[in-house]
Amino acid sequence: MGRRARLSGTGPRAQPSTSPCTAPGCTGPVRTCVGCRERDQRSALLRLVLEPSGREGLLAVDVRGCLPGRGAWIHPTSACLALAERRRAVPRALRVTGPLDLSGVRDHLEQSDR
Ligand SMILES: [Zn+2]
């Protein structure tokens, strides 16, 4: 059968890989930074999720903002990360008890800072 169902045929294909996901729950105009509590475009924020492997206390940086599960949004700055860390906002946002290892996030920020 040569059926060509192009569901996405109406949209422009010029979009770079920054926003490939249109899944429900993955789109939203603004999110609140867990660090400074300011609202911003989700494209300006970094999404943090629990490590998909399920390892306790490990965080993953959801670069594309599309990983399943509960996410915490934060500005990609060390200042907001420090704020979030100080008030334990990330584990609260992710509904986990116990400390979370934010070192992976910090590494990510340091890499993208330069
Ligand atoms: Zn912030």
From TrEMBL:
Residues 1-25 are annotated as: Disordered. InterPro entries: YlxR, YlxR-like_sf, YlxR_dom. It comes from the Bacteria. It holds the Pfam family YlxR. Residues 31-110 form the YlxR domain. PANTHER family: BLL0784 PROTEIN, YLXR DOMAIN-CONTAINING PROTEIN. This is YlxR family protein.
